[in-house]
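[job 4471] stage=fold_predict status=RUNNING
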Amino acid sequence: MLYNKLVRDKIPDVIAANGETAVFHVAGDGEYWEKLKEKVLEEFKEFVADESAEEFADLMEVLGAIAAFKGFGAEEIAELRRAKNEKRGAFADRIILEEA
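[job 4471] inference complete, writing structure tokens
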């Protein structure tokens, strides 16, 4: 079966443990970035279809990989969130804008 998609690091070992052969390569930066973008959309769609903690964890794993690849530090992201929350608020009040 052909996949051509980014998978978790241990998937080739899992396939081998099942007696099968995985054909794979290690992506360069450009391909990795493109596959991360595809993967985050895939994981988001899976979370929308199944709103479980497991699917949310998968989505967060890909977001973490994106942050690492782009060099976004946890403190930097937290500060950006705080600043945006101070200026524009968060989503806690569940406000639905109908017209402006």
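[job 4471] summary: The chain has four helices and no strands.
[job 4471] exit 0
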